[in-house]
Amino acid sequence: MELKLIFQLIRRWAWLLTIGVLIGGGIGYVINIYQTPEYEARAKILVMEPVRNSSATTSSSLKANKEMADTYLELLFTQPILDATSQKVGATLRPNQIRAERVGETGLMEVVIRDTDPERAALMANTLVQVLIEQNEALQTSRFSSSEETLQAQVAEIEQELSNLETQIEQRSEQSIGVQTQEITEQKLELEQQINSLLGEITVLEQDIDDLTPKAAAGLLPAPLTLEQRNLMNEKRTLLAQKQFQLDLAQDAYTELLNLPTGEDAVVTSTDLRDIEQANLDLYRQLYSTLLSNYEAVRLARLENTPNVVQVERAAPSTVPIQAGPLRYVIMGAVLGLLATGLLAFTLEYMDDTLKTPQDVANVLGLPVVGYVVNESAMEKSEGMPYVTSSPRSPMAETFRSLRTNLEFASVDKPLKTILITSPGSGDGKTTVATNLAAVMAQANKRVILLEGDLRRPRVHRALGMSNQIGLSDVFRGQMDIRDVARYSKVKDLAAITSGSLPPNPTELLGSARMAQILARLVESASVVIIDSPPFVVSDATVLSAKVDGVLLVIQPGRTHAEAARAMLAQLNRAGAHVVGVVLNRVPRKNANYYGYYRYENDAVYSIENTPAEQPAAAGDTRRTGKGLATMFSGKPGKIGEEVVS
Q1: C-beta separation of 216 from 222 below 8 A
Q2: Is residue 340 part of a domain?
Q3: Quick one: 63 and 153 in the same domain?
Q4: Residue 490: helix, strand or coil by DSSP?
Q5: Structural domain range at position 134
Q6: Nearest alpha carbon to residue 495 among 430, 450, 446
Q7: Alpha-carbon distance 431 to 437, whole Å?
Q8: pTM
Q9: Do 161 and 129 share a structural domain?
Q10: Of 524, 464, 525, 527, nearest to 499 (Cα)?
């Protein structure tokens, strides 16, 4: 059932959905025409984990690769890299032009650059990758630059000392004792200064290492060192070991000089001095070798901890823009237009509280729908004779016959002698339903009286082509009897009582005991009395509903609001009225099948084609004469005598 309602909603708003599709498709086509084409250039880079992590387990390696790839993906969007790329290319590279992602679970990354110029897009992609590689090397080199610079300076210093010692040994000759003693004294002083300087540097390094060492608070574990702190700690310890080694060498040389004999009686030969200098040369060479080893160790550590970023595929200019063709834009625009208008239709439908379907009537009022009347312009314009009489073979006549049958089944236990036709508002077609229902009942060989109960805006006389000079108001004033104002219409067995002149107090008249007496007399004279009443915007229909056997509500789908219908039903229940059911009037022809109306004009309908049509009475039929009316009203001839309504 819900699916059926959805299809009904789509059919009802098909015109709006069609407009949305056309407008959306047109907008999509216009956007495609005026949009500047853009191109994409793709480059691929490979990020390999450091050599230090190459022996890690598979799971940890995959995790490290993912984290490293995510790091480099974010690094692509940093401002320094964007600025450097823009400067090299000569055009501004914006973050929204870049799209980067990993290729599966591998270490490959694809970098996509979008630009209006295909050549510039390819240049930006390749330059961006090159800048990333350069920045990676610069970042990793900066972590070990301090240690490398310190070791390079020390190596250069030791090289200078080695060169000086070698020169001194080569130029050494026999010298006097005084000169030798002076040189020994100078060397002692130099060694003392070097030892004191090394001791000071060692003290400072030990203090720095102690400051970097985490201190445990009371009851807590020491905080772990950060990566920068660990690197700085290693640099300090390496430098401390080097200074300690230099101190040991200087102290050994100083000890040997102290063991040499001094004074005027000491004899020092050049051979002894050369031996001492040669020993110092060997010590400096050993120190030089150690420094070179430390320097290479730092470089190796940098290489082992540096991820390798390599461009494996260069970006090439594209010849096809990334924008879709006009068909895709039209389809996208049409879909968006359909969604927008669908949402609008749903909103309007949700906000619309009018009764549209029999299910709405059942849910809101709890009443059955006993008849459906399709919106037929010819029926609305038919005046002077009911439509079912002038067109007895029409599908519309068959719908009123169905309504007549439904009312007969609804009155099996208690016949409906008086039926009130009313509606929640004006303009719902009460008079049309009342006159055609009265006519179709008269065609079933029943004596029917159609009473105009609307003393404010009467319309029955127009529908039947009668004058309205005399009527029900004259009976209330006592000027005429009910039989004097009743006149036969052009339909056999159908008499009508119009309103007459309009009274100033219609509600009081309709609710009076006199009205009850009039109805009782009409019931005695006819098989069925049908009353066309005012809408429920006035209280006339309420007072009449308590005096009749059944009330038939006329509701126009899509026009009658649920709250108005509820209020009308509540008033009828308070008045103790018997509501027979609902007639849906002016049902749109496109929804006729849904409401139970079948298109007889396209099908062979045996009930119409094979059954003789019900025709108006012949001119000689006494039931259309004043004598017939007099017979209907207790057999007494009426004052209007032999008049036949033309």
Answers
A1: yes
A2: no
A3: no
A4: coil
A5: 17-140+313-331
A6: 450
A7: 10
A8: 0.53
A9: no
A10: 464
